[in-house]
Amino acid sequence: MTLNNALSDVNAQARAGLPPEIFAVLEADRRRAAAGFAEVGDKIEDFTLPGADGTPTALAELVAEGPSVLVFYRGQWCPYCNLTLRTYQQELLPELAKRGATLAAISPQKPDGPAPDLAFPVLSDVGSTVGRSLGLSYPVSDVVREAMKTLGTDLEEVNGSWELVHPAVVVVGQDRVIRYIDVHPDFVTRTEPADILKAL
């Protein structure tokens, strides 16, 4: 089963489990058009972000000995993100190690949020400074905000603001130049591990 097939199953479960009016709001949001993202050839400025345990990690460290795969995700409260990160750990991380590449996940969630059980850095980009520099961040609409609150997710508490990032995978070279970028405004779909390896 591909990652996106598994994510479709999660979405089917959400459709069955959520109130229809809430699911309709979230479905409309995932179909929203977006543009203005960073492109292949753009350079990422060096950054240092805290991990879930407070330990800082810099982009310079991630690309010190090879390319790095940066996975931008919405937060630990997002079931699609959790499945994606677990899949990347299982299917992608061992292959990256063979290629001398690193993997790191980045979200707008505060560093004092729940720490995922992952074997790669999970970094906190509070205020979406890095995400915004790549054109990935966006404000959550009022109608989606109310739907999320109804489901018990208050981004003001977990992220510090009602701002999210589009899920994305960015492959960065040692010169901090983007070699590959794949952005998913539809948050139910994500980049397949095989496509990341092909890009590397």
From TrEMBL:
The keyword Oxidoreductase applies. It comes from the Bacteria. The keyword Ribosomal protein does not apply. GO terms for molecular function: thioredoxin peroxidase activity. Pfam families: AhpC-TSA. Residues 38-200 form the Thioredoxin domain. Keywords: Antioxidant, Disulfide bond, Oxidoreductase, Peroxidase, Redox-active center. Gene3D superfamilies: Glutaredoxin (3.40.30.10). Belongs to the peroxiredoxin family. BCP/PrxQ subfamily. This is thioredoxin-dependent peroxiredoxin. The lineage of its organism: Bacteria, Bacillati, Actinomycetota, Actinomycetes, Pseudonocardiales.
